[in-house]
Amino acid sequence: MALAHALAREGFAPVIATSAAYADYIRGEGLDFVAVRPDADDLTSRLGMDMGQIARKMAEDDRFLFGELIFPHLRESFEDIDAAAADAIAIVSHSLAFAARIVAEARGLPLVTVLLSPLMLYSAADPPLGSRVPLRRAPGSSVEIAYNRALLWAVAHAVALWAAPLRHLRRELGLRPRYGLDLLLGSESSDAVIGLFSPTLATASRGEAARVFVAGHSFHDRFLGNAALAPELEDFLAAGAAPLVVTLGSFVTRARRDFYRDCMAAAARLGRRAVVLAHDDDAPALAEASPRHVFVAAYAPHSQIFPRAAAILHHGGVGTSGQALRAGRPQVVTPFLGDQFDNAARLARLGVARVVDGKTATQDALFRALAALDDGHAARARHVAGIVEQEDGAAKAATRIAALMADKRQEQAAW
């Protein structure tokens, strides 16, 4: 959303192509929208699972995202994006939007690949920190970097073996074969690669910095059209000390009542009040049974509630992590799946967070992590916030894309 608005300010007419579930929100912000299959109903119907079960399966099985959620719908996604791109001058896509990259290549359109988290850099100099792969986590020599590069190459080619549907569709369309990270992430076939995350989270080598432009974090949380806190929440905040704020974002948050109760209990053991942001299905029951020192809500804008916190306990999603960094509050991060483990490790490396594996978290583990947050974490969080609050990744990315398109126009004119 933030990038689309920034591109509009650069004079473009952005169209967001994504799941039908977001149509009203996107159009409500004055942006054009095209639905792309699958949506949540398609997935739950085909798999016989609700979204909470899907989230849990993703946390258990690394292949589930590709094998059950993306690739079975690859052709449908391609057809929808291809139709939407009939009058397009370029495609800007998420690094895992395989169908979008195929459309760009098939139509000969400029392609900008956006990396939303530093994990997707797959950097040999600053490798994935949450991975089970035996990488050198802090390579201090050219030999260790070369080792990481070779191991990442091998892993990428092994993972690419899962991508048979992707190779088949490319072959059917007459596109040349691609391999490894280029097949999976478009690392070599993109006209530009832009990272929409804070440079404080990633250290790119000179060669990687030339390949990837890290624009900074992109902030936009007007998702529900309400940037203010509810009056009841304002009253709670005003009635006592700054609380612990607990959130699991918008995906892994389903069916986590026991987790939220453990967070409430850990806060109580510390003598802390708490604000718990739970899923719509769980918030009423949690609120009814919660003690007076806890406020439960289904939603509050992170940009508004995080600065009012004493500490923030969250899942490590990159959007939530960026908001927590900007708020300048110490964090406990409880990753469940995907890039959350890498984000959590990077936040801990920054000195602003403690980490507890969300899948095995207990009340005692959460209590110990919260109790371990000290003045050093708080001071470091304030320092990093001074950097992150100056970032406008969407604006910088849009400027870079505008420059790319200007270069493309000059090249065409020269012909």
From TrEMBL:
Highest taxon listed in the record's lineage: Bacteria
InterPro entries per UniProt: EryCIII-like_C (IPR010610), Glycosyltransferase_28 (IPR050426), UDP_glucos_trans (IPR002213)
GO molecular function: hexosyltransferase activity; UDP-glycosyltransferase activity
Biological-process GO terms, alphabetical: antibiotic biosynthetic process
Gene3D superfamilies: Glycogen Phosphorylase B
Residues in Erythromycin biosynthesis protein CIII-like C-terminal domain copies: 264-382
One Pfam family matching this protein: EryCIII-like_C
PANTHER family per record: STEROL 3-BETA-GLUCOSYLTRANSFERASE (PTHR48050), STEROL 3-BETA-GLUCOSYLTRANSFERASE UGT80A2 (PTHR48050:SF13)
Protein name as annotated: Glucosyltransferase
Species annotation: Methylocystis echinoides
